[in-house]
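Structure in, sequence out. Go:
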């Protein structure tokens, strides 16, 4: 996709905030517990390689991604740390993963059996690192029965094409006040864990929420995702043990300003009619940039003042009602701080009836990412 370098719309990513969030978390972890940075989906929209670079400087010792291509992207960018693909990869790519020293998540013995001939073909230069996924109640991927896990473990031990590097599970409710289901999952995982002949190098259960609020069960690695971007995984339900610093701001400028008379309409469908003579600003951001149509009625900051998004959000532009005449080129903040006022990604998500994860992931590659530098130690 073409990135818009000649329009004022940009995402500003504060690398120091990312660094600080990771360093705070590492300080809370015992020395024996590693932090792997989750940088899937282009680093939750923040830019995978830039986030991974900063995470490494902050002390992350490995990375988690969702799909094999993201892992290969990190290797291409020169990262030599361990990388785990959290989703299911087709066994036909076992050789590609093995040769790039990329670890894969596996939840059936059938997967191992299908990958074996691929790993026995020519030019395989390394064994394939496996993390067994345990489905302790998330209902997504992984072994659900001890017997099946035990058999897969035995199969793996018989085939030197594989090496068991990890065992993990994922919690469905670690970000909630009520811990009953969480504790049920912990118990299920502890029981499944007994099925292995011996413990692998990494046993890991923690996403951000688990590491922030249930660190007692962390294991020896945490998969630290959304919190490294400075976002509270629970929304506003639980408070993190240290203040998270949001890394992302979304800014642009007014590109057109006009006064319209009472009764005049704005945007598709002519759904908005001015009550009186009003100053209207046009903002070069639309749903093609990831600013959803349902954000009609929400606000932006123009010159530090809240201004309502009026009329329908278009593909590439939206209109706001200004308090008074303002010049073209006036700063517009869609996410971030301007003066004494702030719009958080949580505010946007709440208005759009979703979670901040979805808002950042939807920010299109058309919007350039600009990086503020890390401070050195
Ligand atoms: C995405 C993901 C994570 C990271 O979750 P956050 O809530 O962003 O910390 C951890 N583990 C698995 C299996 C995931 O899919």
């Amino acid at each position: 996709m073409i990135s818009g370098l000649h329009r004022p719309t940009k995402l500003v990513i504060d690398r120091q905030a990312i660094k600080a969030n990771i360093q705070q978390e590492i300080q809370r972890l015992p020395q024996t517990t590693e932090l792997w940075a989750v940088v899937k989906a282009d680093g939750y929209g923040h830019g995978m390689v830039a986030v991974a670079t900063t995470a490494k400087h902050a002390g992350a010792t490995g990375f988690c991604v969702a799909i094999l291509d993201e892992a290969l992207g990190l290797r291409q960018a020169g990262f030599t740390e361990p990388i785990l693909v959290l989703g299911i990869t087709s066994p036909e790519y076992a050789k590609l993963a093995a040769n790039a020293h990329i670890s894969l998540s596996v939840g059936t013995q059938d997967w191992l059996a299908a990958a074996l001939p691929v790993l026995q073909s020519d030019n395989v230069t390394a064994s394939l690192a496996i993390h067994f996924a345990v489905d302790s109640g998330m209902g997504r991927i992984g072994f659900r029965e001890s017997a099946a896990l035990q058999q897969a473990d035995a199969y793996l031990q018989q085939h030197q094409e594989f090496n068991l590097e990890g065992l993990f599970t994922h919690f469905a409710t670690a970000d909630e006040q009520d811990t009953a289901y969480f504790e049920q999952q912990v118990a299920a995982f502890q029981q499944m864990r007994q099925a292995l002949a011996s413990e692998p190098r990494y046993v890991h259960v923690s996403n951000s929420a688990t590491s922030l609020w249930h660190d007692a069960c962390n294991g020896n690695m945490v998969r630290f995702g959304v919190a490294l971007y400075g976002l509270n995984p629970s929304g506003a339900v639980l408070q993190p043990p240290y203040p998270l610093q949001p890394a992302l701001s979304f800014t642009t400028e007014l590109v057109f300003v006009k006064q319209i008379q009472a009764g005049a309409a704005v945007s598709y469908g002519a759904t908005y009619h001015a009550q009186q003579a009003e100053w209207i600003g046009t903002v070069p951001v639309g749903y093609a940039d990831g600013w959803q149509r349902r954000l009609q009625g929400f606000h932006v900051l123009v010159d530090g003042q809240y201004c309502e998004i009026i009329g329908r959000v278009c593909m590439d532009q939206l209109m706001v009602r200004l308090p008074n005449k303002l010049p073209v080129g006036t700063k517009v903040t869609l996410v971030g701080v301007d003066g004494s006022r702030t719009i958080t990604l949580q505010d946007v998500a709440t208005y759009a009836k979703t979670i901040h994860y979805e808002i950042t992931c939807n920010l299109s590659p058309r919007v350039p990412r600009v990086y503020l530098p890390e401070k050195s130690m």
